[in-house]
Amino acid sequence: MEILLKKDVTGVGRAGDIKKVADGYARNYLIPQGLAIASSSGATKQSKQIREAADRREARERQAAMSTAEKLRVLVLNFKARAAETDKLFGSITASDIAHAIEMKSGIEISKRQVELEHPIRELGTHQVAVRLMAGVEPEVTVVVEREGEAEPVIVNPEVIKEIVDEIDDTDEE
Q1: Stated pTM of the model
Q2: What structural domains does the chain harbor?
Q3: Which of 101, 104, 122, 149 is deepest in the core (most CB within 10 A)?
Q4: What is the pLDDT of residue 150?
Q5: Other beta carbons less than 10 A from residue 123's beta carbon
Q6: Contacts of 141 (CB under 8 A, 6+ apart)
Q7: Segment 18-21 long-range contacts (CB within 8 Å, at least 24 positions apart)
Q8: What is the model's pLDDT at position 133?
Q9: Which residues contact 90 (CB under 8 A, 6 or more apart)?
Q10: Segment among 22-26, 76-80, 140-144, 150-154 with least mean pLDDT
Q11: pLDDT tens for residues 101-121?
């Protein structure tokens, strides 16, 4: 059966394409779900209109995704976790944890399925994790996993120390 796709369908085609699919697939899934209509003689004209609308929509979505990608590229997510002396975590940092942290830190809603993480993070250190916003737009987020309970290193300017010592010396002389 020939159909005209109204929306992009993975494995079949893009919106506006005229495709030949199995009758049952068209009648039982594509047409009832509103993803396609049966092809007719006026389908080629309609096909062009649907494709142009889909291209405009995709351009808008790509622009929004690029803007979001720029925000995500500079984002650094810090996680504190219990770990053994070998730097192996007792638990793990999952795609769900990363998606939640992105939402909490930046306000950008990301589903755990968009986080490209083959295996949960199980070691301390800095990790780069890709986030799939749309095809071709996959910024990497920096994930820093630190040992829970470690004191933060304090960086002090030597000039500040000298000023404090001078103040103490001045108060001792009085």
Answers
A1: 0.62
A2: 2-61 (3.40.5.10), 74-147 (3.10.430.100)
A3: 101
A4: 63
A5: 14
A6: 72, 73, 75, 76, 77, 98, 102, 128, 129, 130, 131
A7: 18/43, 18/44, 18/47
A8: 86
A9: 81, 82, 83, 84
A10: 150-154
A11: 999 988 889 899 999 988 999
User: Contact, 31 vs 38, CB < 8 A?
Assistant: yes
DSSP string, the chain: -EEEESS-BTTTB-TT-EEE--HHHIIIIITTTTSEEE--TTHHHHHHHHHHHHHHHHHHHHHHHHHHHHHHHT-EEEEEE-B-TTSEEEEEE-HHHHHHHHHHHH-----GGGEE-SS-EEESEEEEEEE-SBTTB--EEEEEEEETTPPPPP---HHHHHHHHHHHHHHHH-
Q: Which residue has the higher pLDDT, 7 or 154?
A: 7
Query: How far apart, in Å, are the Cα atoms of 147 and each of 78, 95, 109?
Result: 11, 19, 27
Reported confidence tier of residue 20, pLDDT bands at 50, 70, 90: very high
The tokens for 56 are 């405009």
- What contacts 93, CB < 8 A, 6 or more positions away? 79, 81, 120, 121, 122, 143, 145
Q: Which amino acid would we find at residue 87?
A: D
Residue 47 token pair: 């096909």
